Amino acid sequence: MRRKGLASMAVHTASTSADPSGTTDSRVDLGPAAALSCRECGERIPLGPHFACTACFGPLEIAYELPDGDPEGLRKRIEAGPNNIWRYAELLPVPAGVADTPNLNPGFTKLVRAENLARELGVTGELHIKDDSGNPTHSFKDRVVAIAVQAARAFGFTTLSCSSTGNLAGAVGAAAARAGLRSCVFIPHDLEQGKVVMAAVYGGELVGIEGNYDDVNRFCSELIGDPIGENWGFVNVNLRPYYAEGSKTLAYEICEQLGWRLPDQLVVPIASGSQLTKIDKGLRELIALGLVEDRPYKIFGAQAEGCSPVSQAYKNGHDVVRPVRPSTIAKSLAIGNPADGPYVLDIARRTGGAVEDVNDEQVVDAIKLLARTEGIFAETAGGVTVGVTRKLIESGALDPTLTTVVLNTGDGLKTLDAVAPTSQATAIIRPNLDSFREAGLA
Amino acid sequence: MRRKGLASMAVHTASTSADPSGTTDSRVDLGPAAALSCRECGERIPLGPHFACTACFGPLEIAYELPDGDPEGLRKRIEAGPNNIWRYAELLPVPAGVADTPNLNPGFTKLVRAENLARELGVTGELHIKDDSGNPTHSFKDRVVAIAVQAARAFGFTTLSCSSTGNLAGAVGAAAARAGLRSCVFIPHDLEQGKVVMAAVYGGELVGIEGNYDDVNRFCSELIGDPIGENWGFVNVNLRPYYAEGSKTLAYEICEQLGWRLPDQLVVPIASGSQLTKIDKGLRELIALGLVEDRPYKIFGAQAEGCSPVSQAYKNGHDVVRPVRPSTIAKSLAIGNPADGPYVLDIARRTGGAVEDVNDEQVVDAIKLLARTEGIFAETAGGVTVGVTRKLIESGALDPTLTTVVLNTGDGLKTLDAVAPTSQATAIIRPNLDSFREAGLA
């Protein structure tokens, strides 16, 4: 059954997979990254700008040679490292000197102990928000793009590119500017003005495509196969295996910020599902390396009802994720055909978690709940995870007596429209005390 | 001459200064803060919610009993502290246990080595951007509000308030939410929708005043004098001496991040002028405490041409700042009658710096220059400092061979309109390679 889900993903991506032979350099320096390996058949190929297995079209991921034997030494080196994701350079596909190269240095964002929110939700255990709105362009995308930049450099790419509907465009534009790479980002031509401005301000090429996001993706695949795209690194296509690893740093940081301790439960948003699978990978690595105790944890996936193919498959007991046409205010999660959906189902079931969804009204309520309890203004994706957390507590799926970490992956300033209708002035008054008293606020 | 400038400021604030007697508790625990002292006549009064001297109407500031005799020990304690402003708790008007109280933990934002920008500006020395867009609500206001929250608690205030046109409203709303205080924020009723939403989302009271910012301020002064306002802490009025001290942390962080070294030159934006004066105060404290070498530094003030009363006074050799009616896109700096203007003039002249201004077109150019060179999307205030830096280099006032730190105090996402007209898609194409080639981007 699972293979079907993957086959549908392969249709999406494999058609443009270049033949690795001839474009690969096995001596490329990406630190502990040793090879690319297929998540389906296990085939290994040398490191290169490839994303689909030549044997079975399965997705490729990074295989590592990680440090072993001295967890205490590794922990000390991490703790002595910079206050960004490069403190974990020994566990990432990046060269050892990465922290000295010009980049945006994302990560090590706040893990906020959310006691006010816990009270409202009836959580008696520890509740934490991992708040990635503190990243340089205010979303978790800075993490993944920073890793992709290193891969782009290693493979000699001179243009950094992506297809995007928002957060990623800004993250790529900013990272390329700082790294001294050319950037050329593709978006649907009718995006909201705010997102267009954010993507354009970093000075790279910004190309609007007359079509929807699927059309943009298809065009990018065509471009990679064309000589024009020869020196182009598409962070979420031909650099995807590297890019995706950036999400592991969320797992590393959460555990380190908890005092080198696994949380009992994590609530993670699902777009393509990549982030959730890499958080699981990161947690398993920390256990294997001896940096945290080996004990169970549960991963819960969160979707918006209007784009909930993984949640629907989970609830129906399916291994296959049936694509949907998204219709939700949580646009950064609106991927109707999530490539990593089957893996997410595996992880939720293996760890004893679940996948749940909330409707747009619940998303808005959750954004406002988080804002008024903890002073964190989350993007709609954060409304999804907080809303799902509440729903999971009510259903009993999530244990409110344990340690739980909920991810906020973006910033409310980027999705103002979601809360605008219900976030307005309490009162409009004339500038005098009588008018103030009349408003009933004294 | 200087007294005149202060007199004009006193008109603005002193009319609502409560009599300190009876409302003051000298045993209030605000750490090393020992008293309030008048910046003009030196009069000392016990700590309390007061902002103007009862003897001369001069502005009050915090007088400290700072640790002495063991700079090495202090430095180590700071370095072992949390990654936020509370690492400097021993130097701030806050209780020792401040880091354990629920607050937004702002500060320790990135100091970015800006080599790309340096090349463009012809800077051969070190050029750094202190990027305060990384704060919780994405402006430096989180620093000052965090200190005001501690004062509000110490004085038993139950409502946190302010008058604001933007950044401060969000910072107060968020901080109060997290701290469990009621908030009631006053804004002009016709603010841009985005700013209203940001101020409202944290769930406090948000009151639109039918009038301009001056009307809002006058109303707040009236409210403080009325029994209604008895338990209200207005962060930028009756808590102003505490609030203002938060800006010292910018100086502390810059020096620590430079390896406990003073920069040679700093470029700081001027709104009320408070931030610049407190940065100077912070630098002098570090010297007095033996944490940095005692050597000269120069502070440069930056204004927008459409609101440049301090710059005009500087250029004309005046000690008096003549109020102006602001007209600039740099709205967060648009204070036409800056309370600390005379002190800013003193500091610029004493340190060998200067005050300069740039027009709105130069502000936009500078925002885009910083974005395309360093991947930092600054608010208009950051465009002002970067633009002024360029102008000061061209005029020879700023030495490009030395170590310079330029402040970016806010986030471009909050002032999208400034760059929107000139930050758009490079091209709109159909989703095929021919169309892409025709656009000339291949």
Automatic annotation (TrEMBL), chains A, B:
<keyword id="KW-0456">Lyase</keyword>
<feature type="region of interest" description="Disordered">
    <location>
        <begin position="1"/>
        <end position="27"/>
    </location>
</feature>
<dbReference type="GO" id="GO:0006565">
    <property type="term" value="P:L-serine catabolic process"/>
</dbReference>
<dbReference type="InterPro" id="IPR050147">
    <property type="entry name" value="Ser/Thr_Dehydratase"/>
</dbReference>
<dbReference type="InterPro" id="IPR001926">
    <property type="entry name" value="TrpB-like_PALP"/>
</dbReference>
<dbReference type="GO" id="GO:0004794">
    <property type="term" value="F:threonine deaminase activity"/>
</dbReference>
<dbReference type="InterPro" id="IPR004450">
    <property type="entry name" value="Thr_synthase-like"/>
</dbReference>
<comment type="similarity">
    <text>Belongs to the threonine synthase family.</text>
</comment>
<dbReference type="GO" id="GO:0004795">
    <property type="term" value="F:threonine synthase activity"/>
</dbReference>
<dbReference type="GO" id="GO:0009097">
    <property type="term" value="P:isoleucine biosynthetic process"/>
</dbReference>
<dbReference type="GO" id="GO:0006567">
    <property type="term" value="P:L-threonine catabolic process"/>
</dbReference>
<dbReference type="GO" id="GO:0009088">
    <property type="term" value="P:threonine biosynthetic process"/>
</dbReference>
<keyword id="KW-0663">Pyridoxal phosphate</keyword>
<dbReference type="InterPro" id="IPR036052">
    <property type="entry name" value="TrpB-like_PALP_sf"/>
</dbReference>
<protein>
    <recommendedName>
        <fullName>Threonine synthase</fullName>
        <ecNumber>4.2.3.1</ecNumber>
    </recommendedName>
</protein>
<dbReference type="Pfam" id="PF00291">
    <property type="entry name" value="PALP"/>
</dbReference>
<dbReference type="GO" id="GO:0003941">
    <property type="term" value="F:L-serine ammonia-lyase activity"/>
</dbReference>
<feature type="domain" description="Tryptophan synthase beta chain-like PALP">
    <location>
        <begin position="106"/>
        <end position="410"/>
    </location>
</feature>
<feature type="compositionally biased region" description="Polar residues">
    <location>
        <begin position="13"/>
        <end position="25"/>
    </location>
</feature>
<feature type="modified residue" description="N6-(pyridoxal phosphate)lysine">
    <location>
        <position position="141"/>
    </location>
</feature>
